[in-house]
Structure formats: C-alpha cells, structure tokens
Design goal:
heterodimer, A: mainly beta, B: mainly beta, 6-stranded mixed beta sheet, 12 strands, globular
C-alpha cells in the first residue's frame, strides 16, 4: 500500500470559518509533510513532522495550524483564511531517513482543492 | 542554498516518440538525492524515478530513465514511447541533504503535451 489519502478533495470555506484538512498513510512512514501549491507553480513546503514532532515550519501564518495526532495521521486546521490562501494543499509522507538511497521518496496524496470566499 | 532549474515551461511530443525533460541543479553538497514527479491535472504528485548522487548507473523505471551527468549537474528525464496519458506537469526535485533530510526543493516544472 503506497497510498496517502487526503480528505476532503474539495473544500469551499468562508473567511470566518474553521475547517480541517486530513491526511492518512499506512506505509509506516515517520515523516509527514504539508505543501501548498498555487496554479501553475511548484509545491511550496509548509510543515514537516518527524516522529510526530514538528520539525520544520516554513514561516507559515498562524491561521494554519498543523497537528500530528499519531504516526499515521496529519491534520491541518484552518481558521480565518484569506482568499489568497486558495490553493491545492498536498500532504506527503516518507521514511524519516537520510536521502541518499532509493526508498526515501515522498509519496503524495491527491490533494485538497481549497477555495476561500 | 539549493536550486533546481527546469528551463522548458512547455514541451510537445508525438505519441510513441521519446522526449527529454531538462533539469539542472545547484548544490555544494556531495550527497544528495534527485527525484522526478508527474502531476496530472487531477493534482496528485506521482513519484517516477530517483537518482542518488553516489549512484554510478543512471536510474531506470520502465519507460522512464534519468540521464544523470554529475559533473554538469544535470538530471534529465527521458520518457520513451510517449503515451497520451503522459500529458502532465513534470517536476524535478532535490532532497535537502543538510540539516534537514526531509525538505524537497522543486523546479518550476515542465508541462508536457503528447499529441496523437
């Protein structure tokens, strides 16, 4: 099973709403990631969790709040978003090992297309 | 800081022909990993192929091969016998081998269109 599952696939929310994006993997990976991708651009890293601890925060605004409740799940809590936050949000996972050998690739989910109105 | 450059915003290829997508990178590290991903319009990033900096042979995965030229710092993706389903955005990426083993740096991508 090399699948990363993200829910929901599409989300429309108002600027005063609170919502959550969910990500799940059962590959035993101990590194999980959130990326934001605008149209026709490469993904931009937001957060990395390693062994359920926040390892990297790429200076993301506090209206985005990540959570890693266990080794299989990753959430992204959204609150008071702006229209410019509309994007594709991708979750990924990988082994938490050095990146010199095969098998360290990151597997991505299908993403959540978020629209903030 | 690392940098990945994909100089071809768009490429066109006829079905059944081969196509090369360019990728150059810049790093001062000796140990690094290079990846290619495919992203169809559906949005999912699909892992295609991996090349390690210490790998002596070019990586191959089915119709995908990586033309790795370490001295020139290039890692071009070759797709043989193109199919209509290969139409997608292709991203070259490098894993940060330094303080963080996890961060992937992506190029800007190349949009490949396969014509029937």
């Amino acid at each position: 099973d090399t699948e990363v599952t993200q829910t929901p696939k599409h989300l429309v929310m108002g600027m005063t709403n609170k919502k959550s994006l969910k990500c799940e993997q059962h590959m035993g990976h101990r590194a999980m990631y959130w990326y934001k991708q605008k149209a026709k651009k490469p993904p931009e890293l937001m957060f990395v969790y390693s062994y359920e601890k926040l390892s990297i925060n790429e200076s993301v605004p506090s209206r985005f709040s990540p959570e890693c409740p266990n080794s299989s799940l990753l959430n992204l809590h959204l609150h008071a978003l702006q229209p410019e936050d509309s994007a594709l949000y991708l979750c990924a996972s990988s082994p938490a090992t050095t990146g010199r050998r095969p098998g360290t690739e990151a597997f991505f989910g299908q993403g959540t297309r978020l629209t903030v109105v | 800081a690392q940098k990945i450059t994909q100089t071809q915003p768009g490429m066109f290829v006829q079905e059944k022909e081969a196509v090369t997508l360019d990728c150059t990178y810049d790093t001062s590290d000796q140990s690094y990993g290079l990846f290619w991903y495919k992203q169809p319009s559906s949005g999912e990033m699909i892992f295609l192929i991996y090349q390690g900096s210490y790998d002596e042979q070019n990586a191959t995965e089915g119709r995908y091969s990586l033309n790795f030229q370490k001295a020139r710092k290039s890692a071009n993706l070759v797709i043989s016998a193109s199919q209509l389903g290969d139409s997608a955005m292709y991203f070259c990426a490098m894993r940060d081998p330094g303080g963080s083993n996890y961060k992937l740096t992506f190029g800007k991508g190349t949009l490949l269109t396969v014509n029937p």
